[in-house]
Amino acid sequence: MSLLTKRHVVEGLKRAREAGAREHRDILPTWCPGCGHFAPLQGLYEAAERMGVAAKDLVVVSGIGCSGRFPFFVKGFGFHSLHGRSLPVATGMKIANPALTVVVVGGDGDGLGIGGGHFPHAARNNFDITYLLLDNSIYGLTKGQASPTSPFGMVSGTTPFGNIAEPLNATTLALAYGASYVARVFSRERDDCTEIIADAMSHKGFSVVHVLSPCVEFNKVVTYGSIKQRIHELPAHYVPDSRTTAITYAECEDPVYQGVFYNQPRPTYHDHMQAIFDKVKQP
Fold it and tell me: Do 134 and 105 contact (CB within 8 A), yes or no?
């Protein structure tokens, strides 16, 4: 191959990479019209811009499910991991490069089903990452099977006689597992999504945002209407400093509260690792 041909090949590959990068950045969301995931996506955009996070410093990690498409719609680094494995992938990234802003996005099936075993360990270690748990109470991508948060009695493709399992409460679990920041928000409230996601990303430690995100296509039980009838802001006098009090409010079903349930920073995993490094370096 001549030098001229080699140069043409190199330039062609460079143009292809640039075109691919442009195409990746210009991909628009492909969710169903009315999907609850649009608001937290916009909230992530606005939160990152408000915080001044550069694209080169932002990593979005997802698992499998409708929410798994998040990395494709964000200008930054993205990793579409295996089903339920987004948290260990994200924690590895944060340990390798603590300067990165790492956001994990997963659904109720991804995060509380097959990936449920990773949730408590990310919380107790207090990794400095933000976890957006988008809860539509259904397996939407695979066309409507019951999920870990589907209501008792719900009829679905896998529960034709009604769901006989009690639903999990992601907010309560995050609090019980020891997350240092826990919030819940209804995706219908776009501005609230932005405010809470920005607050969570600013928090130093493991921050969990439980987003009630209706599936308009396959879930006819948990809907915008049904959530709107029950959702209520935390009381004005509420102070997010007691895990016990937070769990009491998180468990309430009528009304279902939204807002910041718990916000108590503590040393992160990296802080503890740095302390060990400093100790080892001492003569």
Answer: yes
